[in-house]
Specification:
Blueprint lengths: L2 H16 L19 E5 L4 H5 L8 H9 L3 E5 L8 H14 L2 E6 L11 H10 L1 H10 L3 E4 L7 H19 L5 E5 L8 H11 L4 E4 L15 H8 L6 E5 L13 H10 L5 E6 L6 H16 L4
Parallel strand pairs: 1-2, 1-8, 2-3, 3-4, 4-5, 5-6, 7-8
Length: 302
């Protein structure tokens, strides 16, 4: 990255941090505060619409707020046009005008942070730098990354600790968290992942527990309730994955009440990110079904 772009990111981020909170809200329209949690929307919930070119990343804030009444935004890196200053400025203006808050960026396709090759691993770390800077500029608290690579569980863990430590060191001055989702392979083993995070041992390196991603392989699954419980002490966010709903509006494949009780008892009080990934309902219907279920669960803690 050239020095002029780095200077722009830092100057713009400093200016953003100096703005009062009210500047993020349309005049006379405060952001709703869900209790005891705030809701965010994972952009992946709309991946079919995005891939079909029915909307773009720039449409995401307005749809989240206007169509679904959700004001926290979890972006997916692959839907960004670029991370240049003009594009980020445009996106930031849209989020301010729509009264939304940028929460995190889910980063994919930038290499394996647990690559067995030290050179390839460092290249992957460096490819994530621009997303750290974009997250800072947009006012996010985290980027979500993947702890992927090859080798035995022990070999991958050692490589992932190295990659995550390097990236977290870079992200620390920006005030950005580097958080790992259970996203297949060894990362879907709650004990393996939390051991890796513990070995990194940095405050800005944590987890993003996903209710649905506990398939280690086609033949091996990890207990989702155990996994969420193990990951919550390190959680900087929570992904409420949903796929199928029964006639009563409950998620048919998992006990949302039990999962949210684990989240609540952990002491976490941040964003709960809705991530609908099913096929029985349309994307908007699935998002709203998940939102209704979560809001119903939240009522027990009002």
């Amino acid at each position: 990255m050239d020095n002029s772009r780095r200077s722009f990111i830092r100057a713009a981020s400093a200016a953003l941090a100096a703005l009062p909170l009210a500047s993020w809200e349309p005049s006379g329209r405060p952001l709703p505060q869900e209790k005891p949690f705030k809701l965010s929307l994972a952009e992946w919930s709309l991946h079919k619409s995005l891939n079909a070119k029915e909307m773009t990343n720039l449409d995401f804030p307005v749809r989240a707020a206007g169509e679904f009444g959700i004001y926290g935004l979890e972006y997916v890196s692959t839907f960004f046009k670029d991370t240049g200053a003009p594009y980020l400025n445009e996106l930031l203006k849209i989020t301010r005008d729509s009264g939304t808050r940028n929460v995190l960026i889910m980063v994919d396709g930038e290499g394996n942070l647990g690559d067995s090759s030290a050179d390839a691993r460092m290249k992957a770390v460096q490819k994530h730098y621009r997303w750290v800077e974009a997250a800072k500029f947009l006012g996010c608290h985290s980027i979500r990354v993947n702890a992927r690579g090859s080798g035995t569980p022990e070999e991958l863990a050692a490589a992932a600790v190295d990659g995550l430590s390097s990236l977290s060191e870079y992200a620390r001055p920006y005030g950005i968290n580097v958080i790992v989702e259970n996203h297949g392979g060894y990362s879907s083993n709650g004990k393996w992942l939390t051991d890796v995070i513990s070995r990194v041992g940095m405050e800005n390196c944590g987890t993003l527990p996903d209710f649905g991603n506990f398939n280690i392989s086609d033949k091996e699954k990890y207990d989702r309730y155990q996994g969420v419980r193990e990951m919550m002490p390190f959680a900087k966010g929570v992904s409420a994955k949903s796929n199928v709903f029964d006639a009563q509006g409950n998620e048919a494949n998992m006990d949302y009440y039990r999962l949210m009780q684990i989240v609540y008892e952990s002491g976490y009080r941040g964003y709960i990110g809705i991530e609908y990934e099913g096929t029985d309902l349309s994307e908007p219907e699935g998002i709203m079904a998940t939102k209704r279920l979560l809001e119903k669960i939240f009522e027990q803690w009002d």
